[in-house]
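Possible regression after last week's pipeline update?

I re-ran a chain I had predicted before the update to compare outputs. Posting the input and the new output here so someone can diff against the archived version. Not blocking, just want to make sure nothing changed silently.
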Amino acid sequence: MDLLLWITIGFIIIGFVVIISMKKSMERKVAFIKANTDDEGNSSKAKAVIWWISGATAWGMVSMYLVGSCFDKYFG
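New output (post-update):
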């Protein structure tokens, strides 16, 4: 097997594990922000949630690129 395939598989699996492990924490932060709309500490929690969403989006885009590269290399 080629290195590109191993990098793609590893990147996707590690990304899923990280996103799933952080999901509950982010859900709790969103619930806290919804419940305490007047609290001063919401800013840092909101930034953490926004960074998590941005990271998950970037991970998804890179994963799609890697999968596309694999298809192009092996089936193109």
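Follow-up from reviewer: compared with the archived run. DSSP finds two helices and no strands in the chain. Marking as no regression found.
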